[in-house]
Amino acid sequence: MQYTSSLVLAFAAAASAATIKVSVGQNGLTYTPNDITANAGDSVEFDFFPKNHTVTQSSFADPCHPLAGGFFSGFVPTKATTLGSTFTIVVKDTKPVWIYCSQTEGDHCQKGMVAAINAPKTGNTLAAFTLLAKNATTSTFPPPGTPIGGTLVKSSGNTTSSSTGTASSSGSMASSTGSTQFTGAAAGLSANMAGMGALALGALAMV
Ligand SMILES: *[C@@H]1O[C@H](CO)[C@@H](O)[C@H](O)[C@H]1NC(C)=O
Ligand SMILES: *[C@@H]1O[C@H](CO)[C@@H](O)[C@H](O)[C@H]1NC(C)=O
Ligand SMILES: *[C@@H]1O[C@H](CO)[C@@H](O)[C@H](O)[C@H]1NC(C)=O
User: Ranges of Low complexity compositional bias (predicted)?
Assistant: First the structure.
């Protein structure tokens, strides 16, 4: 079997990149950990716990509302007996990435269900973001449908199904328009990286 050079590069990146696991809703309205440090190329795997949460990217200045071109897991209803659904993003660079739960029933974001990847230690900190979120208007989220900007693996107990979304609803790895969605400076995800990561994982599975 022959590998293309990009696949070999993706393989090398995946082999050295870490996967950081974050629990969603395991200890109440929280992401654990919520102050995440990651290197470019690392994956962040969000593991869903009851009851019905999302992983949604916002800007720092506008918590509880989606960032254009940002990632969105969709709602992941989770029963106590059906753990195992995950949403995984690949970190593009070390710029801060701001995250919230879009659930409006119970105002999860306003109640502090927020997280950050590579938040500054001073100035725009996670604590400052959390305070802004408390004052935010009712949460909004992208239209439901396929996940955006990451890979969702939905578990319903015994079976799992996987779907991968790019940050453009019409985008794919081959799409020339897909990357134009990544104009937000805070968008910490590359659709191509996500796709390459998936390929690299496939390659790992073959060896
Ligand atoms: C999950 O929450 C969303 C948003 O509130 C809602 O539309 C959806 O019906 C919920 N799903 C379940 C299974 O409760
Ligand atoms: C939140 O709103 C309160 C009351 O209006 C205000 O005093 C406070 O400064 C606001 N906090 C932030 C972080 O905007
Ligand atoms: C799923 O697993 C549980 C526990 O092993 C079993 O009782 C149940 O019948 C399974 N459901 C399906 C649809 O296979």
Answer: 149-174
